[in-house]
Amino acid sequence: MSPTPAKPGGTRIPSRRTVLRGAFTAAVVTGTAGALLPLVDRDPAAEARPAPAPGPGSGSGSRATTEEFAEMYRGREIRGTATVVVPAGAPADDRVAVAAEPATEIRIDGRPLHVMRRADGTYLSDVRHYESYPTLLETARAAVDELGTARLAPPAVHHM
Questions:
Q1: With the C-alpha atoms ordered 132, 138, 142, 147, is the resulting torsion angle positive or negative?
Q2: Rounded to an integer, what distance in angstroms lies between the CA atom of residue 63 and that of residue 80?
Q3: Cα torsion for 116, 122, 125, 130, to the nearest 10°?
């Protein structure tokens, strides 16, 4: 390999390979930092705090909308909650609530049912994963219909 040629003033000109290697390294570092920033930038204490409930005089704080139910359906006890926290200053329309990610929980006879929210705002469960429902209550009822007399399996314990 030949040495890097020098300019007339005695300074060296970096080779094309050196410039490309530096640009690639900078791109990888920048991309990795951008991808990891949301994970590092989280405030665990803020996630653990419950969202303030809407009330009179809470115009500048965040708003929380909830869906809660507890009922006996076909001899099974179903309970569920969905809390959607809307950021402060967001317009008070349904599009913001649908875009926000809710914290959901459904229990059938005390055992948790895994529920996912689709992009269109509907819900689907592990039991009825091929059909979605507009509310958590309808999702829970459909899971009970599908389960029949069977019980949900207890949640798996992960050992590390």
A1: positive
A2: 20
A3: -120
The sign of the torsion formed by the CA atoms of 120, 126, 131, 136 equals negative
Among 70, 50, 51, CA closest to 62: 51
Q: How far apart are CA 86 and CA 65, in angstroms?
A: 8
Q: pLDDT digit string (tens) for 60-71?
A: 445 555 778 899
Q: Can you tell me which residue has the tokens 């929380």?
A: 64
Query: Is pLDDT of 42 > 80?
Result: no
Q: Cβ contacts of residue 9 below 8 Å, gap of 6+?
A: none
- 137 close to 80: Cβ distance less than 8 angstroms: yes
Among 117, 123, 118, 119, which Cα is nearest to 143's?
Answer: 123
What are the start-end ranges of the H helices in the chain?
A: 16-40, 44-48, 94-99, 136-147
pLDDT at 128 over 70: yes
**Could you tell me if 113 and 107 are in contact, meaning their C-beta atoms sit under 8 angstroms apart?**
yes
